[in-house]
Every structure is written in structure tokens, then in C-alpha cells.
Amino acid sequence: MTAKKNLFIRWLNKIPPQVIVLVAILFVAIICRVWLLGQPSAYVYDEVYYVKYAKMFLSGKYWIDVHPALGDVIIAIGIKIFGDHSWAWRLLAALAGIAIIPLSYSIASRIFKNRWIGVITAFLLTFDGLMLVQSRTALLDIFMTFFVLCAYFFYLKYREKQNLAFLAACGLTLGLALATKWVAAPFWIIIIGWFIWDTRKTPRRLWWGLLFLIILPAAIYILSFLLYRRRGAESFWAYLKYWHIRTLKFHYYLRSPHAYESRWYTWPILYQPVWYLKTEMSDGTVSAIVTLGNPLIWLTSIIAFFYSIYLLFFKRFYAVLIPLLSFSLFYFSWAVIKRPEFVYYIVPALPFYFMLCAFFIMNIYKKYKIIGAILLIAVAAFFLFFYPIAINRPISQTYMKSMIWLKSWQIKPDKNATTSIN
Questions:
Q1: Tens digit of pLDDT for each residue in 216-266?
Q2: For residues 93 and 98, what is the distance between their CA atoms, to the nearest angstrom?
Q3: Which of 161, 266, 308, 401 is the most buried (most CB within 10 A)?
Q4: Structure pTM?
Q5: 403 with 386: CB under 8 angstroms?
Q6: Sign of CA dihedral 400, 404, 409, 410
């Protein structure tokens, strides 16, 4: 027994401490994302659209969404395997939300060549309220975020190994991201530009980029429309044209006001969270699901964003370039969009935003260990404070009021605000 124990200890000592910490973070993330996943049992916010579409897909009925079909079909897979239960609607979203954490760890560790920055990135994503809410609801953004991060991971593996299989995997997952939501396009542009820069001295490889990073994602996007059931004898190409015209018109002309809409420039300061749900109990307690990010993480991330710009332009520190570009191109693209917007639209860019934040916190820790440690402890404390309104746990009215720090954080009386406008 002693020999086996010593063997186990030697094996444990070979594991990098960052991996051990990451496993502990993942354990917390899993518990937070799957505990009471089926509560509430009714639709939450836009689940009324996407779960309905998933069920229509499974029943073979005609259905049409204003987003490509893949996200709805992923929700349908959970229902098909586990049945029509509220936790089954949300299970694959929860798994995607969990997978985002080690993916972000791996990407940040490679970009900054520092595993502790990867660990802090994983920590921030685990303890952010908005990421938690999106990981516990059957909505589309979390799936797109997962596919985007897979694409970045595979591209970084390609850069390391120069193995075209990883480049193909990158193109495949980019196509899946686009087949979930159009707004994956900025990340597609970033990776194409990254590849062009990497191959500037070996231009023959550009042909592989054309095949795997342009043709393959576009082909997967187009083929994803086979998931839609067409009416009658309508041809695939006629339906493809009809869907795109219809969807472009919908998004272009959509101007209906919404109680929780907010412009892109207010998102980083968490000006207007969205109340997905609020329930008042007979015993006087109240429960809610609110898309409120961790205020301390988001405030620190604003500072980290400008700090990264300073390092890039004045110190020529290029490690921040890819996270900075990835966040900025996605985030600032919303400036040209006129349809109603919501704070959770920023979710696909948050892993890159938090990578910059993790880098900033790591720099603080290197110089002032106590301040860095206190900051991370405070992040966890903020998360615990707001945790009940991320997972719909009953709390007192007094506790609920203590979380409303801004007037704009209050619930709106508009009865139509329980869904978006899709």
C-alpha cells in the first residue's frame, strides 16, 4: 500500500500546479452550471422560441428561425436523448458553458505563454454571472462561443504543429459557429487575417487557407440549411435565397422598442442587465434570473482593455494583439447595427476580454502579490453575493433590493419584456 501511495504522490507531483488549480475551478464551474439546471421548469426568456423550434425540428414540422438552424438543432439533440424536460433543454448549453473554460485556459496560456494567465482566465469565466446565466439557458450565444473558441484552439495547434488536420478542424468549427449565428463573422475574419500574416513568407500555403478557412466554413454554413424542413417541392437553393432575404429584412427593419435593450457602449459598465425571469413567492421571498456580470471583473476588464492598448502601441507588446483584436472587432461591430441590442450579445467576446483582464491581474500579482490575491478573492465574493439571481434561488426582498445598485438595474413593469424580439 505504501509503494502505491508513493507512486501516486510521484505522479501527482509531475502534474503542473496550474492544471491542478484548473481542475478545481472546473469542479466549481460544473456544480454551478448543472445544479438545479431544470429550475424553473417553464421556458426562460427566449427559450420560448428556441426550444419550440427544437421540438418542431424533432416532430418533422415546418419551422423557420431568424438565425441559422444549428443552434436550435443542438437543443433538439438534448431533448431527443434525454426527453422533453427543462434540464434536457439546457443540458448541452451547460456543457458548452463548461467546455468554454478549459478552452479559454488553453488559448490564453498559449497566447501569453503563461499558464497562470490561463488559470485566471478560467477563474474569471467561472465566476462571472452573465456567463453563468447564458450557460444555464437554452439560448444560442453559448454554442457559438464554444465553436469560436474551438476554432481558435485548433488554429493555435496548427501554428504549433503545422499539421493541416488542425487547420481543417479550425475551418470546420468556424463553419459550425457561422451556422449557429451570423455574428461569428468577425472571429472568422480575425483567423483568416492571422493565417495570412503567418504565411506571408510561405505564400504557397495560402491555398490551404483558401480551402480550409474560406471554402470549408462557407460550405458548412450553406449545408446547415439542409436542417430546415422546406415546404412542398421548394428547391434547396430557392429556400436558401428566401431565408436570407427574409432574415436580412427582419434584422434590418426591426425597430420595436424593448424594456431591456441597451446600446453597445453601455455593455462594459453593465448599465442595463436583462431580467429573464422574476417570481414572487407566497412566503414573501422572490427569485430571479438576471444577466448581470460580475461588477468587479467587468470594471477591472475596462482598465485591462486600455492597459493592453497602451502596451501594444507604446511598448510593442504583441501578445495582447489577438485577444484585443478579437474582442474589439466583435464588440465595435455592434456600433453599426441599428436593431435593438442587449447586453448578453457581448458573450462571445467575453473570453477574449477576460484574457486581457487575466493578463492585467497577473501583472498586478507579480508586483503586489497581496493586492492581486485580494482582487481574486473579491471576485469570488462578488460572485457569491449575486449568485442567487443567476440561478433563480429564492431570497428575501431585502436581499434582492441590496443587489440593485443602479436605477437601470431595476425590473421593468413591461409585461412584454419576458422575451426579446428574437
A1: 999 999 999 998 887 776 788 988 999 999 998 888 888 778 889 999 999
A2: 9
A3: 308
A4: 0.94
A5: yes
A6: positive
